[in-house]
Amino acid sequence: MAEKRTRTARAALATATAAAATLAFAAPAQAHPFTPTPGADGVGDPLYPTLGNGGYDVRHYDLSFDFTPVTYDFAATMRIRARATQDLSSFNLDVDSLAVDRVTVNGTPATWAIGPGKTGQELTVAPARPLRDHRSFDVEVTYHGNGRTKPVGLSGWRYMSDGGFASAAQASRADTFAPVNDHPSDKATWTFHLTAPQGWTPAANGNLTGRRAAPGAKETWDFSLKSPMAPELLGISVNKQSYVHGRGPHGVKLRHLVPEDQTATYRPIVEETGGQLAWLEKTLGVRYPFDTYGVQIVRDGYGDALENQTLSLFGPGWFDRPTYSTTMVHELTHQWFGDSVTPATWQDAWLNEGPAVYYAAVWADQKGFQPIEEKMRTAYDKLDAVRKTDGPPGKPTGLGGFNIYDGAAVSLYALKQRIGQDEFDAVMKAWLTKYRHGNASTEDFVANAVKVTGDASVGTFLRHWLFDLDNPPMPGHPDWGGTR
Ligand SMILES: [Zn+2]
């Protein structure tokens, strides 16, 4: 049934597009030729070719999301302000298992269809009037769904035993909550309006800006994230949870979330965040890039740790380990590496994970958990084989592997060994400063290192570490490597 509807809608879409194009060409002479064509269904990411979409750049997402705990039903509206980067007869948004009710473009109902995509589905929207290159336009998608629906791709929903949820959207799962341009290269500012029954506590990226009553004994909580964010870092939740407030260095607002019946257990842990922030600012020589931060610990339903922008998400299991602060520092490091400076493509994911593992290892060394040389030696030994099976750090065959985590950290350690601590610190600081709130690629990292050191051979050195199928020798450790 879905297939049939799709085909019919597609035929209507083609007709609408053709009619609109004809009208456009028949219009009075334009200053330049107006040639609307469909935007691409992907940005051509090396690892996820159909992730994201071509033809426009999102500037702002405004998500209204009304969630019913326990049943997981939701009703939502996503308002998107975007700018066309070509003349557009139609464009795509990434969705997955969202029941779309209505789509408007610039306030006028648009023709739309949902088709298959490689990591979910594609919502193709044909505006009543084609869109002109460089012009801003507004899209409004009204939709509903159920968080328990099995999506076509991977689900970002994490279910809590209290009947609530948290979003874990990396790398391609934001589309199970909202229509988005789901690629890290398209960052935008966000506002959220999360509605839940009274007694439930919503949270989202950014700052809480208001709370107001909503019909049906509900409440709407408004949030605003002023710094641009990639959809993969979406951090929304509705749970039986409590806010814990604090202040970090130079007044950074801290707001943490913990299960409401476990504040006594978790308050002392989340309050370690201020010290970790100060340590990272000192170590990196760069201020925390956002105006708020927090740690969200969920009661269950999620076992990992994830750097959702300004609100890192943690499963409870981490905090049974004496070294839990290392994981907290890992996700906090991501706020600089990954969230503020975001990789251009998923092929560049080592730029996220390498620094997160590296600086967490520096922390672990200073705290006496594990000497960094021991960790790097172990990683070095393992990386040589992983390069051949999963690809080198700069050209992985997928995400989540040792190569882009510890393998990338040992590559950064090699750079530090090669150019010395001061130059290494200067390279990382320049990287964070130049690409703050932007996107950057592996080649940008190499170019930055060459520029800061004034030494072209550093570029060759880094390329061997990032792209070779065999480990290069480790500077300063002639005894490393060899056969084991
Ligand atoms: Zn990480």
What does this structure look like?
- The structure is a single chain.
- Helix 9 runs antiparallel to helix 10.
- The strands form six sheets. The protein has an eight-stranded mixed beta sheet with strand order 6-5-9-3-2-12-15-14, with no helix packed on it.
- The N terminus is likely disordered.
- With 484 residues, the protein is of the alpha+beta class.
- 30% of the residues lie in helices and 28% in strands.
- The protein has two domains: 238 residues, tricorn interacting facor f3 domain (Immunoglobulin-like, Sandwich); 126 residues, Neutral Protease Domain 2 (Neutral Protease, domain 2, Orthogonal Bundle), CATH 1.10.390.
- Bound molecules: zinc ion.
- The site of zinc ion has 4 residues, from helix 4 and helix 5.
Can I get a quick summary?
It contains ten helices and 24 strands.
Task: Throw out a few tags for this protein.
484 residues; alpha+beta; Immunoglobulin-like; Neutral Protease, domain 2; 2 domains; four-stranded mixed β-sheet; 24 strands; 30% helix; 28% strand
Q: What class, by secondary structure content?
A: alpha+beta
* The CATH H-level homologous superfamily of the largest domain: tricorn interacting facor f3 domain
Distance between the termini: 59 Å
How are strands sequenced across the largest beta sheet? 6-5-9-3-2-12-15-14
Known CATH architecture of the largest domain: Sandwich
- Percent of sequence in beta strands: 25-35%
**Class of the largest domain in CATH?**
Mainly Beta
Q: Count the beta strands.
A: 24
Count of domains? 2
- Uncertain runs are 1-27
Q: What gyration radius follows from the Cα positions, in whole Å?
A: 24 Å
Largest sheet: 8 strands, mixed
The CATH topology name of the largest domain reads Immunoglobulin-like
Mean pLDDT metric: 94
Shape: globular
